[in-house]
Amino acid sequence: MDEKIKLVGFNNLKKQLSFSFYDFVIALNQKEQESYIEYIYKRYSAKKITELLKNIVEIIEANILGISVQDYEPYGASSMILLSDLKNETPPPNMGESITMHIDKSHITAHTYLDFEAKNGFVSFRVDIDISTCGEIAPLTALDKIFHFFDTDVVVIDYMVRGYTRDISGKKIYMDHKVNSIRDYIDDEILKDFYYKDLILQNDNIWQLKLMRKNYNVDEFFSKDSKLTKDEKEKYLKILFEEIKDIYKA
Q1: What is the pLDDT of residues 140-199, one digit of tens each?
Q2: Sign of the C-alpha dihedral, residues 126, 127, 133, 136?
Q3: Using alpha carbons only, what angle is made at residue 172 by residues 168 and 173, rounded to the nearest 5 degrees?
Q4: How many Cβ atoms from other residues are within 10 Å of residue 119's Cβ?
Q5: Cα–Cα distance measured from residue 16 to residue 47, given in angstroms and rounded to the nearest whole number
Q6: Annotated catalytic, 102?
Q7: Which residue, among 129, 148, 149, 124, has the nearest Cα to 139 in the 3D structure?
Q8: Which of helix, strand or coil describes residue 121?
Q9: Could you tell me the fold of the domain covering 14-249?
Q10: Distance, CA of 13 to CA of 206 (rounded, Å)
Q11: Which of 87, 103, 213, 222 would give a disulfide with 226, using CB separation of 3.0 to 4.6 Å?
Q12: What is the DSSP letter of 180?
């Protein structure tokens, strides 16, 4: 393990980890669309998303200061958790609530979106998760947990470190941990199911990883009550896979 950098004062490096998870289905009529909306709400309601975010807080060894959740009509959900920047600690008890909330600016947010492409009957579900931390908290450690929560066709992950802190000699520190690739934080059992491509701008402290699922069960894209023939399904899937590739390549 690398020797821990001795800092003067508080480590205020901003570490930003962002995800976009995409899931697709083909819903050719209102009944099929409503069925998918119902599925999404049951699995990814604000309450369910918040439970995931709480698990992430535990994994990265942070502490919860406040929670805000919201479901939307006709669909969509949001959740936000404000965190303490102090790893495995809570702020001193003599701090007033308003002071605490301003000093501890780390947070996790999640927002879900549904998009209906009427022409081809495509429906896409996207969830965006953003983890912003300072101090010793390392958000990359939560990657595996997040992957296991979602069924996904395409994933886009961005990691960025900004700002600087100082060591005890006064030297500026722009990075306090080593990152080669985001892939290093994802289990090989997960990675084997995806095509992936890396963007690594080491000198700029920017990393991106895009993933696209390799193998599909054709029937999972259609309603269980679908009346389409095998050939008709293949026709729709050919167009849908081009849509998925577009997002992966973008």
Answers
A1: 888 888 888 887 899 999 999 998 888 888 888 888 888 999 999 999 999 999 999 999
A2: negative
A3: 90
A4: 6
A5: 24
A6: no
A7: 129
A8: coil
A9: S-adenosylmethionine decarboxylase (3.60.90)
A10: 14
A11: 222
A12: S
Is 0.90 surpassed by the pTM of this model?
A: no
Residue of 20, 79, 84, 106 with catalytic role: 106
- Dihedral sign for Cα atoms in the order 145, 146, 149, 154: negative
Separation in Å, CA 48 to CA 58, 59, 72: 16, 17, 14
Reduce the DSSP state of residue 93 to 3 states and report it. Answer: coil
Q: Looking at this protein, which amino acid is placed at residue 153? A: D
Active site residue 177: no
Angle between helices 30-44 and 46-59 (to 10 degrees): 40
- Catalytic annotation, pick one of 107, 124, 132, 134: 134
Q: Is 163 left (phi over 0), alpha (psi -120 to 50) or beta?
A: left
**Is residue 111 flagged as an active site residue?**
yes
Q: Specify the 3-state DSSP secondary structure of 145.
A: helix
Domain ranges (residues) in the chain: 14-249
- Please report where in the chains the tokens 């999404």 appear, as a residue: 40
Gyration radius from the chain CA atoms: 21
Residue 54 CA to residue 169 CA, distance in Å, equals: 37
- 84, 111, 124, 132: the catalytic one is 111
